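Run log, item B.
One chain of 470 residues. Sequence copied directly from the ordering sheet:
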Amino acid sequence: MNKNNFNPAPLELTAAEENKNTENFVEQERKPRHIKGIIVRASSLVLLMSAAYLVYALQNDFTRFNLKGMDSQWGMVLFIIAGGLFLFRAGFFLYNLYLYFRYKPVDTVANDHLPTCTVIVPAYNEGKQVWATLMSLAKSDYPADKLQLLAIDDGSKDDTWSWMQKAKEVLGDRLSIYQQPVNQGKRHALYRGFNLGTGEIFITVDSDSEVTGDTLRNLVSPFVVNEKCGAVAGNIRVLNNGQKALLPKMLDVSFVLSFEFVRSAESSLESVLCTPGALAAYRREAVFGCLDEWINQTFMGQASDIGEDRAMTNMILKQGYHVLFQRNAFAYTNVPEKYSGLYKMFIRWGRSNVRENIAMAKYVFTDFREGSKTGSRILFINQVLKLVLTYPSILLMLFFLSIEPVLFISSTLFSILIWSSFPVLFYAKKYKLSESFWAYSYSILYTFGLFWITPYAIATASKRGWLTRG
């Protein structure tokens, strides 16, 4: 699906028909449309296989380099630290694999048991896409008398408000629309929605996202069967991966691993670290238990205007609630199609990650909830290690690149081949083999083209700004 040619199905379609249409449409859009994508995937695989051969051919050079390094005290210390970190990472991966196999999404509950819900759609300069988002929500297989739809225009400078009004004309009393007098940021738009909403459960959906027919009922079912559940993360896929741009195709494979593997594992620990803005649900009591703190959140003396989803998740975990993931609740969202948009999005996410790990450090080792807290603490330690090791890793990379460029590049590419084979296999098993090879291309891009994001995000964590919005 893409927002330029997506035409909403008539509202009189049944939920089953609409769900089938959505799945068929998305499947059609996944098909590669031109030769460039095939060339990129094939080239990536050839590059990685060539690196594997080079590593084999240069075995003697690798042995000499390793022995020379271990002859010195610093070299031995570095070897021990690197070995320890490797064992931790490998162990953490196996731990996640175990948790993944333990995970099962909660089955949807009957209509009589479904809670009342308020769906909040904040929008800024979204144009016609907000119409498609609202139409997809209106066609959800959810009891209409239990569903409140709120759309909030955050002072857009384009025709977003006009498209909201058109949606209102079609949906009537089923949809309420509001307009902020000036652009205040997504957090403030959501805050207005939380205060206007009457539902037992709040659902937030980004205005560039579309849901399938059974998404809402699947998303809220955990709240019914688990009274300790405070928030639920949806399963996010890429909406615009049917276009000629290559980045959305890479990100779709990355999202599948991030959500269907990583968040499945986190959900087994009842400690999903981030409920995504594209699709998330929150228990009303949990939201109002931290709403004042959330809207007034600051970092280094400045108001926080990014990372509202991660912050809300963190504050709900802090209250002792469980945070889960529903693999069967899908939302398709637009992602950047150009490098500039991609790195800006990652910088925003990186800054939020720094801030929220600092916030999490203040409670994760306390008695913040009943039951086991070990899993939450392991997840936190893994997050912190990634941040702590960022600068040493960059310095070592530059050092090895300067003294042994061929060995460094070939071994790095060989490592990508090894570690990226898991997301390739994971995606291929669930979806499509030919599309799974984008994982290799994405790993190459991230390693050599986006490695600077995390150190830059750490150094500029106090900076404000959404970056990807005009």
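Observations after the first pass:
- The first strand starts at residue 117 and ends at 123.
- Residues 1-32 have pLDDT under 50 and may be disordered.
Flagged for discussion on Thursday.
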